[in-house]
């Protein structure tokens, strides 16, 4: 692992807290605006399409530019780009909170997404650079817990802030709350964040970046806006264009590699033991999780008449279970670690379906449902976190930035496509206003689709358990090779300039 040119006195624990706080801010803004949407519509007199762009503009920019953000970190420095992204995100949040009209708000939300795309990939790269072995697995567990908590906590925080109507500002505090937090993190980053320089001589692969960004844009835009606009013809044309551009991207990357250049996504990254099947399984897990959270919240608010705050609070058990399992799965007997993703998914798939069955008649979200949600969340965390550690724990540190961009893009696209496709399934099965029973039946249909997708995820997870036998859970490629060959396993040091084991 390359030595990190850390500043004297920097400590990995506070650094991890710092970058994960930035990650949390970015995740919070994915869901917090959903709660504020009715207030935005009323205050700014926004049309339905404009309101959808306020919500989706952030997600579209974020998802499309994540790989670009990862490559910027690899070239110009991970700490530097994290700070630039954080500063941009804080400034864009202030602009959103002060936006005088809908058009301004849409533009500032896109700027927020661009800044988040610069900041977020550096979080995983910092973890890859500063932590190794068991410490890396723990750090990835905390990362997973933040990922799980951001969606549910966003609803709770949004509900609290909008309901409080601080100083008559309505929806604006859901954005302005990021400003003091961002300023504190920026100040702390100058003292705590080690200097993790990139490789200024590394190729930028501009053709690859532009092609991939265009392909992702053509994929994400119709998926996000299609249902709201009635799936117009241009949406299907964009999806077809996206497939064509992904093929062009593969050809472009092949030519770059053949010329001895540095492609955006190297074959070394994609060839890391188990990374591709792990990415596929994680994509389906996150699509199911995000899609369920969306449908469950909508069922509670539009079907059962719960407030946004209550809907958020009732979503906490599944998120807490997910986050807790992400942190604690390593304490389970080590002989179970290889099978844990498959075992977890064997519980998650029927767990979602059982929630659908319990609520399919239109009944309230009672203690039994809450218990099933908590167990399902724990099982999802037990599946997701070992898969994530398995995928990135086997990547050579030299490829950490590229692997980080790939995996974070997989996570984000999983959430976007999960909400979009499963939201379409849910809303296609019910038309509001509707009875609680009709809404419950739509939730049952949705959970059945999620269950089927997670059966596929379990199959992919089983493949990862057989891939890369030389790699050990939570270790780098070099460490796995050393362990197999009987040599001393390289250990990091809890000192500036070295990774933490």
Structure description:
With about 500 residues, the chain is mainly alpha-helical. It folds into three domains: about 170 residues, Up-down Bundle (Growth Hormone, Chain: A); about 60 residues; about 220 residues, MFS general substrate transporter like domains (Growth Hormone, Chain: A, Up-down Bundle). About 75% of the residues lie in helices and about 0% in strands. It contains 18 helices and no strands. Helix 1 packs parallel to helix 5 and helix 2 runs parallel beside helix 4. The longest helix has about 35 residues. The radius of gyration is 22 Å and the shape is globular. The N terminus and C terminus are likely disordered. This is MFS transporter. Keywords: Antibiotic resistance, Membrane, Transmembrane, Transmembrane helix. Its main location: membrane. It is a multi-pass membrane protein. It is found in: Cell membrane.
CATH architecture group name of the largest domain: Up-down Bundle
Number of domains: 3
Distance between the termini: 12 Å
What class do helices, strands and sheet pairing give?
A: mainly alpha
Q: Count of DSSP helices?
A: 18
Please tell me how large the radius of gyration is: 22 Å
The outline comes out as globular
What is the helix content? Answer: over 70%
Assigned CATH superfamily of the largest domain: MFS general substrate transporter like domains
Strand content: under 5%
Number of strands: 0
CATH class of the largest domain: Mainly Alpha
Kindly report the average pLDDT value.
Answer: 80
Described by strand count, sense and barrel closure, the largest sheet is: none
Low-confidence spans: 1-9, 468-499
Annotated CATH topology of the largest domain: Growth Hormone, Chain: A
- Write the element-wise H/E pattern from the N-terminal end onward: HHHHHHHHHHHHHHHHHH
